[in-house]
Amino acid sequence: MNLTHVTIVGNLTADPKLNPANGEKKAFCRLSVAVNERRGEEEIANFYDVSTFGDLAESVATSLTKGLRVIVYGHLNTYKEPYTTDDGRETHRTRIGITASAIGPDLFRQFARVAKVASTNGSKPAPSAAPAAEEAQPVAAAVAAPASVSEEDF
Asked: What's the pLDDT score for residue 119?
């Protein structure tokens, strides 16, 4: 299968929305990224629907918030959605989205603290909760360190 891979850099337009895993279904997260583009004196905003699954979905929902500048890498996908024109005709329009395989904060003009959690006995650790507001760095996407890691480890 040939996939078109893309990388975009833009700002989250809202907090990511997580649909947690249940039963055999993986966790699923949706987010919207605005990418500003300059054409001469004009600035144009393009909006991308981004989705991700599994552990990455949970990490994104825990770590990122509205307004943060992010880098998204993934492949393009298209889907049709119902649409009613101004004159009342029912039709479909094609939307383009990105299924992300990697997402992270862009460190240009913002800071981030990242904690890597070592797995024990082969199991994957769950993402830790985001820090309280008073612990957050200015304009930061921060992930709280798990209990087994202390502040001195940074």
From this structure: 53
1 or 146: which carries more pLDDT confidence?
1
CB distance 110 to 139 below 8 Å: yes
What is this structure's pTM? 0.69
Which pLDDT score is estimated for 60?
93
Q: How far apart (Å, rounded) are the C-alpha atoms in residues 16 and 49?
A: 11
Distance CA(78)–CA(90), nearest Å, equals 19
In the chain, the domains with their CATH numbers are: 5-108 (2.40.50.140)
Percentage above 70 pLDDT, the chain: 75
Query: For strand 5-12 and strand 69-84, is the pairing parallel, antiparallel, or unpaired?
Result: antiparallel
* CA nearest to 10, candidates 40, 31, 29, 41: 31
Assess contact for 112 and 141: CB atoms under 8 A.
yes
Which helix (H) or strand (E) element contains residue 60?
helix 54-63
* Residue 69 and residue 9 in contact, taking contact as beta carbons nearer than 8 Å: yes
Identify the H or E element spanning 102.
Answer: strand 90-105
